[in-house]
Amino acid sequence: MEDQRFQDGVSVQLGSGQAVVPDATMVERTAPKVTVFACAACGAVLTEPLERLPAVPEAPDYAWWEAEEMGPPPATVPSGFYAIETEPYGPPLVVAEVPDPVMPRHGTRYAIDGQPLVSKGPRGNIVMNPDDCRGLTTRHASAACCGATPDGGLNQVCACGTLVATLCSDCCLPYELHLSPDHVRAVSSPRPGSNLTE
């Protein structure tokens, strides 16, 4: 895993007894890029600098019924990272032919008449740790026993009043924030240690 720092066409001989000192161009090419997301309407920065994961991780196992305090489980995405959701997420929920998770990392859900439901919501959401967001407040959230669910769609609003994300924070659901790609934009790609000016 450590040796992956020197990819992108740069080969490094390890174990030769000689220390490898990357030059400035190697560091520039191989340092992980990070992204900051902002509201597309007003430009307000909404996240900490985040590095992209190749896929959304599986939600951690969490026995919410045994927790001493009610609240969200550990976050699906580690702090400092984001991933792109390739599957539909959020409403509308439509009848499915066979039982399946209603949306990624959620269990099976059924309509009142017992038919299984599946999400036909948008694809391409930017999934991140909710603790890495800034300046968002909850509005229009579909509530559960101790947090928000994604059932009602966008429920996080920027200071300018634009709905930009969906928070999932109930104790028995994955703890995730889904930024809407239609309502946010990448405003910067600073490298680790650089100063963010926005």
**Helix and strand composition category:** mainly beta
Give the percentage of residues in beta strands.
15-25%
Order of helices and strands: HEEEEEEEEEEEEEE
What's the multimeric state?
A: single chain
Strand neighbour order, sheet with most strands: 8-11-12-13-7-3-2-1-14
Rounded radius of gyration (Å) = 20 Å
Kindly report how far apart the N and C termini lie: 33 Å
Number of strands: 14
Shape: globular
| Count of helical stretches | 1
Largest sheet: 9 strands, mixed
Low-confidence stretches: 1-31, 194-198
- Helical fraction: under 10%
Overall average pLDDT:
81
Descriptive overview:
Helix content is 4%, strand content 24%. The protein contains 1 helix and 14 strands; from the N terminus they run αββββββββββββββ. The two termini are 33 Å apart.
